[in-house]
Amino acid sequence: MQTLSVNLGDRSYPIHVGAGHLDRLGEFLKEAGLGGKVAVISNPTVAQLFLDPVHESLIEAGFEVTPVLLPDGEEHKNLASLTVIYDRLISERFERRSSVVALGGGVIGDVAGFAAATYLRGVPYVQVPTTLLAQVDSSVGGKTAVNHKDGKNLIGAFYQPKLVLIDVAVLRTLPRRELVAGLAEVIKYGIIEDPVLFHLLEQNIEKLIERDLELLTQVIVTSCAIKARVVEADEREDDYRAVLNFGHTIGHALEAVTGYKQFLHGEAIGVGMVKAAALSTQRGFCDPRSFDRIVQLIRKAGLPTEIPGNVSMQSLIQGIEVDKKAAGGKIKFIMCEGLGKTRFHWLAPGEILAALRA
Amino acid sequence: MQTLSVNLGDRSYPIHVGAGHLDRLGEFLKEAGLGGKVAVISNPTVAQLFLDPVHESLIEAGFEVTPVLLPDGEEHKNLASLTVIYDRLISERFERRSSVVALGGGVIGDVAGFAAATYLRGVPYVQVPTTLLAQVDSSVGGKTAVNHKDGKNLIGAFYQPKLVLIDVAVLRTLPRRELVAGLAEVIKYGIIEDPVLFHLLEQNIEKLIERDLELLTQVIVTSCAIKARVVEADEREDDYRAVLNFGHTIGHALEAVTGYKQFLHGEAIGVGMVKAAALSTQRGFCDPRSFDRIVQLIRKAGLPTEIPGNVSMQSLIQGIEVDKKAAGGKIKFIMCEGLGKTRFHWLAPGEILAALRA
To answer: CB contact, 8 Å: A236 with chain B?
Structure first.
């Protein structure tokens, strides 16, 4: 097992990465100073696979466990699911020293984290991500949120977990499509920060998809370390943290416009990264060779690279405008400068539209 | 005009107290570094009295103003009102640099503050409290929340405003009953921290109720200074800040049990303080002479001092148990030790019940 740490003063926490240590969750919670009541927020699919070992481990460590299952899917990342959690925490008389465990993918982590951030003005929570996407991205850094009907993650809080437990072995049962979607965020880290990681992905993308646990552990540790460094530098996304949104401006809009049904988050980010790299190349920030490598790797991973014909560019631009990165009517767009380097560039929505149409 | 400050590192902010400086709001917002879009959250009663000068002042200072009116009353301090605000902020394309002004009493301040804390994971907000209660208590310290059907303030966040503007002149139009309710919190500061303030209240309670603006300014400044010191010492209520809940354990439960209809918050706190002082005296923490002075002052202010006959003690205890101050099944009860000093004492709900029945 490897342990990274996210250093944020009195909000610091460890990330434990390993294979097969899910059943040590109770022990880690105790180590983190937690005790008493704990709610495990999950969904039926994940619960069927992993709730038993988690539940048992928590009971063995002396916790009083309340499982709370939410329906599966991005469309349930909303205030209604939040209400389900609040109601249970209240009826089970959860107190300020009680805690919340998010056992699942990004939706569960975001909703459970926001519930923890706001129940009694904040109770401790722990992330146990069960998808690759959640392991390398959403479980680290304290962004919690629910969606609004007009946009993703519009309601939320910055609220750090007490610890993150990443068990790579859970990826064995993850559907291939979801694993590939998770690789989109790993590719993103390569593009924005780490040419060595990018090269490793170019060499080993098939092995990763075949779930080589050793390689998966390696790219997860590298990804989490990059994310931790970015979050440490700018926890509340006042500036630099926005670099993590590379490919997300267009990606988020694409998800929204297609009703969160056609694309998994990582798939939309695949398209978004290709478009962001194309725009970077058009504007002269990215060299054509790096652009080709980016498109090739995204395609090789099996991720989509094009905006489908049934999506109108105008609706996409409207989606971008409502996205929270807008400020003063301009969009803070993240351009890549080849591999491993980025720059911010303010664009009017119309300029993005022109580039998408080109 | 007097300016106090709440010192919380990068979350520090000023409290401007004066009479008749409501129309300088725009100027203060600019001074605080705010600009662009601003939503003024209020209710129809307050808006009719004060929205015009506030609106004009913001426009003059170059802001783009969106008024959002919520229905009046504690029963609207809920997720539904929050949704009204989110919807407006989104439809008006509010961005991370946009801001929120809470123009109203405690309900408006708490809901608007929580909306600001959670919209786009946090936008700046400003408190312009228009009731005495909000001026001396809820507008300072960054507690934001909405109620759950099973209890008050169960969903919320600690989120500090960028500034607080207290215009004592707005109290001229405040209904007498609400002014008196606000005095309950002022009396509380005297009991927990400041015998001199307590004595001043004993001497001048009638003049305060007759709205002597000079005296009101004096007690508001003293109250805010006490609150600021407590919040600086323990922003997230890990321990000491709970002293501000003197009288609130029973008071909150009384409000909940009577459906937030029979008592104003300050009135319930009046009863709660008498009962807390009685319990403190029974347990030997408070001398009988101080107890008498506390009861006399609360009565002289015109606040209720007794639990009404139609409220069952059992339901009151259930209300206390769900209150967020519970931990490990015991209640962190704030006892007064005469005037100006307090101590925490852990009590089982049954022990409180026994004392209430005595």
So the answer is: yes
